[in-house]
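[Q] Does anyone have a clean structure-token version of this?
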Amino acid sequence: MTARILVVDDIPANVKLLEVRLLAEYFEVLTAANGPEAIETCENGKVDVVLLDVMMPGMDGFEVCRRLKNDPATAHIPVVMITALDQVSDRIRGLEAGADDFLTKPVNDLQLMTRVKSLVRLKMLTDELRLRASTTRNIGIEELLSRKHDVDAVQPKILLIDERPSSSERIQRMLRGSAEVDVVADPQAGFFQAAEHGYECVLVSTAFAQYDPLRLCSQLRSLDRTRFLPIILLADVGEDERIIRGLELGINDYLIRPVDQQELTARLRTQVKRKRYNDELRASVAQTIEMAVTDGLTGLHNRRYLDSHLQTLVDRATARRRPLSIMITDLDRFKSINDTHGHDGGDDVLREFARRLRKNVRGIDLACRFGGEEFVVVMPDTDQQIAEKVAERIRAEIAQTPFAIGAAGKAIDVTVSVGVSSLRKTGDTVDDLMKRADVALYEAKSGGRNRVVARAA
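[A] Here you go.
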């Protein structure tokens, strides 16, 4: 694993010490001697993790962290605050400034490296989501990144897996009013519950009498539904090796008992905030991809999707020696509908036609808006005779039932012409198939409209 780590400290010896440790693990290291220099480096260069000293003259680490996290361009960069201060209040102050973790000098080498590697993995995930988001159309990525993720606005739903009632009850009391907590004593039952419910974080105790808690963490990381679910380990003093191994397995954070209420709340808030941020990125990417292949007016697939998918369907039918048919429909005299009732009326007709079309085809059929008032339906495992019957059923329903348009629901008559073609057994291409359907549609239109014409296979 390689990454670019920024070390920020006003004491050169401290910088050199961390630099040597990181270079030994093959990380690329950048350095900054003060807060403004650190902020400029993050804004101008690709930084994967910031190791930030707290006690610096002028702008201290808390302020540097706050500014990085408040800037949409740098808010996604993990920040680890490193200081000689060891008071709980100092850790809480750092976490509330937006820090992803807080380490106390002298820093344990294994703890430092496992934490850095864990945060680098998290940063790589976020970078991948940001890249997908920024390369999709109309996603509003800057608006998304600048949005405030107030985890207090909606209480997070948390799962606590702990077999000791005294411990779980204490955690529940600490989180009362700041999170909705479900408790499970059995680790295997906890695994299934985490998989089946929409939790935003899982707290896993290490104090099981006859079960390895890291096995549970590993199982959560291996399941698709819980792969990105934040995990916080609740460990006892002296369990450093277990914590380090847990970080290597992919846990996100840990707390040492006795747990401080403010630190628990702050670390939980950090994990939930990051999860919601990444969830929004994923949802935005998925929505934008959906928009790219869906017609916004009718909800059917668009021509882009048809062009990319039809070849696959034809290849599959050819390889399996199965029939495949397509129909191209065209609403008759649609221009006169727009001219008479306006484009809003025309849109009402298109939406209703799409609804009726979807109702009259199977789930495996591919219905698309081809453009304007033309629609295409691809029907796998359907020969020409059956396809012609389906086309006739659609034509008849359109002609028999008037369309309601406008707020008043004015009824108007609409008809449709349909061209049908089927895949030939040998030597047929997508272009050939579409061309025959298009010619059949032309014959239907020129032959008086409101009819179905099927070209011989």
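[Q] Thanks! Anything notable?
[A] The chain has three domains: 1-135, 147-292, 303-454.
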